[in-house]
Specification:
It is built from seven helices and seven strands. It is an alpha/beta fold and 205 residues long. The protein has one domain: Rossmann fold (3-Layer(aba) Sandwich). The protein has a seven-stranded mixed beta sheet, with helices on both faces. The termini are far apart.
Length: 205
Amino acid sequence: MKIYEKYCLPHLINLACSLKVVQQQRAKIVPLAEGHVLEVGMGSGLNIPFYNSGNVDVVWGLEPSEGMRKIARKNIHSAPFELRWLDLAGEEIPLEDNSIDTVLLTYTLCTIPDWLTALQQMRRVLKPQGKLLFCEHGEAPDKNVLRWQQRINPAWKKIAGGCHLDRPIPDYIKQAGFSIKSMETQYLPSSPKFAGYNYWGIACK
């Protein structure tokens, strides 16, 4: 399993997260980032092309997976802004309180084991007037789809690096002390419903 997680899983995740429909979702939220940015779960750097570089001073990319950081090398070279890696888990953010203008979460909250601690850490480093930008998949509103998510979830977590299909993303964000300012939802087109229900929006302290 360790060989799969180290050598195969990063490439599978990169492939799934670079699908056209997912990239279109990134384009809705990433350009809103500004100032000093903390991107939690930077993965292979798929968000880099979507940043509005004129509004960004520096991006802290937090990514615990060595395999994902290796894949990201080719994307890092194209970054038109300063990028600093943090090779730690989402629960560990070695930045000062109130030091970040924007926290960015894209398809990350589904996999963080201790999601509450991670979100609280994000809130800690976010400036009082800062913003949390999120674009995540999670719990479907339709009971029949949710039942399938719950059935598939145990096996899915094993093959998808701990990804949960049915996390109630807005509830998690609120439980960590954030206030959601705006949010949109939809099933992504050309995607299986059990994995395709998306939430994206803006939250603040």
